[in-house]
Write a structure and sequence with these properties.
- The chain has 13 helices and ten strands.
- It is an alpha/beta fold and 331 residues long.
- Among the domains are: 29 residues; 184 residues, SGNH hydrolase (Rossmann fold, 3-Layer(aba) Sandwich).
- The strands form three sheets. The protein has a five-stranded parallel beta sheet, sandwiched between helices.
- α4 crosses α13 and α5 packs parallel to α10.
- The longest helix is centred in the N-terminal third of the chain and has 24 residues.
- The radius of gyration is 22 Å and the shape is globular.
- About 6% of the residues have low confidence.
- It comes from Prosthecobacter algae.
- This is Lysophospholipase L1-like esterase.
Amino acid sequence: MRAFTRSFLLFVTILIGAELVTRFCFVKTMEGRFDYGYHPTAGFYETDDGQVELQRSGGRRFFPQSFPKTRPNGKYRVMVIGDSVARGKSVELSYTGQLEKELRAQGIQAECFNLALPGFGSRRKDLVLQQVMNYQPDLVILHVGATNEYEDEREWRRRTDFNSPHPKNWLMRSLVLRQFYEMKTEKLYWQWLPLAVRNQGGGTGDADAELRASADEATQKAWQAQVESVTAQGVQRLQAAGIHVLLVTQATRKKAADGSYLLDDSAVDVWTTRLLGPTVAKLPMKSVFTPEQISTLYSDSSHVRPEGHTLIAQGIVPILKEKGWLPASAQ
């Protein structure tokens, strides 16, 4: 009993120490962490001197960037909103950074900012979009896909559960315990556990739940309808504000029966076409790559390598010129 008591007290002491370290030493990155990206201003920090800093906090893993809240005279401001595909490996290697390079090479004082976030579906991207509208963009590029709705739904459930006053969630007030809970649920350390321990999970982990949901036809239809509705609402807001919109529509790589690769954008093609208008244009990823490039420029079924990002950026410029959206000197 004494040994148990000592062990228990040691455990509690370590837990309290870890909690204090987390709360006081990582306060910036943990601020709003458990809103899971649903807080409207998470990751956006407006300083007293009129700057906006994008930081990795509040459940949003922005690449660190900063810009004046008010667009400087003569600047052409572009903001890219999307998921991990648009995010790329870095700002410079993503099509955001490549687009800025292309525009500046043509004498345009462009400033392009990458606000794409891994795992973000339509609802959380829309919250970022609403915040971005406060910063006077000339152009918003919205990367449209339909593969992250499970993540959006899961994070909304977590936010709701963990912020409820129900006694079952009291332990989750601990940042440390909540982190361990997430690691278990998402099986982040699954590969290091003994097989016997993994089998006790009984297929209840996050990856298993996503697989089951993805195989359910009714769930897929509901997610598809959600993507269409939320995206349309976001485009309508931008149109009403007079902000130009470019939809970059996701194409996933699939292997044909003969071993060759093809691109499929059926999940987003038809309905995004209906959104087009004088201030809304579209670049299908499917139109950017030749059949020979598909096998080498995709790193998996969805993500493209930096060379692919360069081709996307090069495909955006002619559309902006054709629509007459660039500054007069570049037309």
